[in-house]
Amino acid sequence: MPALKKTAIVGRIEWLGRVEDRRAALEAAPQTRLMAHFSGPEGEAHGGSFRASCSRVLSQYPRGTEIRNTRQFSILSTEDLALIAAEMGLEAMDPALLGATVVVSGIADFSYLPPSSRLIAPSGASLVVDIQNRPCTLPAKPIEARHPGKGAAFKPAAKGRRGVTAWVEREGALCLGDSLTLHIPDQRAWRGGA
To answer: CA geometry: angle at 134 spanning 36 and 95, to 5°?
Structure first.
């Protein structure tokens, strides 16, 4: 029996973006197509096979340690974005302000996908879910610039709704309107202690 099982759950790519220089700005430029390479999305500042460890993994490595880049993609759902916007008192949340790579619709409870799930596109491109993407304060600045008085509201509104990070297991193209078929690990939930 395979370790991963294909589900009947299929999402749809609603938005694609690319951050070309994250030192200049977090905001992503909308795209109609992205090439997913083993090093991440073509032209994406968050790409690369390796990255320096950050605050998210300080209990594992000293800051700045070279580690595998499992954060090549930031993937959110339209459903979670709508909940974030509503909690912030906004009509909508532009994923570009969050530095998003992909926004998908049609997959319930998206921010809680099991690690190692795959999202597979018609081109064969396969994105492996690493872990839930915890909200940080970086989007506050671009949100504040567009929606004065709302920047600080993002982090609490996005808790449990910030989507997932992912890395490329198989290369291929991702296009607006493409389907993404969900494959999940075929195992029971872990019952170990903390």
So the answer is: 55
